[in-house]
Amino acid sequence: MEAKSQSLVPESYAINGGDGPYSYAQNSLYQRGIMEAAKGMINEEIAMKLDIQKLSLAASEPIRIADLGCSCGANTILAIQNILEALKRKFRTHPTPEFQVFFNDQVSNDFNSLFASLPVLGRQYYAASVPGSFHGRLFPTASLHFVYSSCALHWLSKVPKGVVDKTDPAWNEGRIHYTGAPKEVFEAYSDQFAKDIDSFLQARGKELAPGGLMALLIPAIPDVISHPQITTGSEPELLGSCLVDMEKMGIVSEAKVDTFNLPIYFTYPKELRQIIEGNGCFSIKRMEILNIPKQHIVMPEPRQRTLYLRALLEALIEKHFGNEIIDQLFEIY
Amino acid sequence: MEAKSQSLVPESYAINGGDGPYSYAQNSLYQRGIMEAAKGMINEEIAMKLDIQKLSLAASEPIRIADLGCSCGANTILAIQNILEALKRKFRTHPTPEFQVFFNDQVSNDFNSLFASLPVLGRQYYAASVPGSFHGRLFPTASLHFVYSSCALHWLSKVPKGVVDKTDPAWNEGRIHYTGAPKEVFEAYSDQFAKDIDSFLQARGKELAPGGLMALLIPAIPDVISHPQITTGSEPELLGSCLVDMEKMGIVSEAKVDTFNLPIYFTYPKELRQIIEGNGCFSIKRMEILNIPKQHIVMPEPRQRTLYLRALLEALIEKHFGNEIIDQLFEIY
Lengths: 333, 333
Description:
Oligomer: homodimer
Largest interface: A-B, 42 and 42 residues
Distance between the termini of chain A: 47 Å
Low-confidence stretches of chain A: 1-12
């Protein structure tokens, strides 16, 4: 086996590491809310749907859990703790197995920060990290028993090709996302998302042991909202207009703005279901829109929204435009 | 299972990360020589002593390899590549298994650099890293098939207690190591080493699958040389005298020098054999003093020796004395 797929995917989308004021760790309350909302569902599914017999663990084989696209904050550790407790309840009547947890993210993720934040006392699992894109293979065949991924699958493996190609109908002139863009741009993003989820499911289909479960928390748009409606006034559009303003001020070049696009796509439940069913590696046990309590007060101020966006996107923007523009860009934003 | 042991061991001995002029990656030619010298031996032992039947791999189970105390340089990747090729030759007549490699070092190791240096194209194994002290448990029971550790086991889990205790016969006044010190100091180091190796072997005894092999490359002193002879003029003694000079110049306090000791011990083959046999978890298949070719030209200049020592010890010295003294200390050295 050659880990070929790893080389096909750009490794440029890690979010801000460390724990400074612009770090993801300090600006991911929204993700925490999502995790909390999913907790009950995950507990129920592990209790009701995980089939210990079907897992057919070998003697002394540990339960292996993976968090894909974990980043480096505290949310991943809390999420894993919850999954672990649900699994331990499940094994109450069996000899308690050992647990091994694999934290995955892009090679450029700040794993040093992640390791520094792992609990030392009373940690009930062996921890490991796995660098690389989850759009390719990361683990040996049938070696995982529970896969978790939260707020990560909306990141595309790359910006769709046509979007940065002047000769393509999907060329996205003067914008950095499909928000407010012609239909062709949106479709190019949508196609890329479908391809990426398909690659993700192909890889996990090989890595998950028979009887294993996967819980994916994916930011999405309700089916009832059609694409142009939701997109007006969104963060990417606003950030894009800031970049266009900076272009007009002569700070960044037009070519730079035209070739920059956010590799992010927000799917619809219906679309996602179609992709998963078309892929065929997994059957959907449950699919729900999470009710995130206090969603409206999690990020009350523009300043906090800016910090949140900066934690997510700084590395990506810096790579394309250089780091001189970052402070000014988020100031304007 | 609780990973209790992890909390008992201080996490302060990681060597210099990154790839700057003072990094370990740029100053570890000596370790490269050791690895090259061990290559043939490891190949032979895998070919002759590894018992595939006894490993009794489950269906689709990967071969799991661990490099303990891997640091963050290129040497670890070359060493693993060699082990992998030897294992693949071994499995020539069987279906080729998948391989998963675990790179271990202290939590404070620069894993970000390690991941950045992993080969992307043609890598024939799934990579993961495991943070924590190898003096405690790091992996699930019976989950490893080949364990490798090079130039790491001479690092003690801590400075022996008595050595920094004014009331203890082993108090090591005005020195930073057992070199040139009274017998009691040497014995305190020797006792700590025996305890540490015992903990290491206990942990590995549980983690290595039956039939698995372990290759340990440990810096040691030939049995024929008794302790006071080798120690005069050694690096630690010289570095200690530099610190004492700085104390006389009023740059560092006497108390700081008296409480600083290097947590490093160079064992003897005879002593190591006794510890391993006394522990009882492993049988020794082969034990040899490596013939390192070109040893005398690997580190020809004092400047290079200084860089090498700085890469190894800077973090440790900085933690105790603060970073103001580092440049001046290695200047004097």
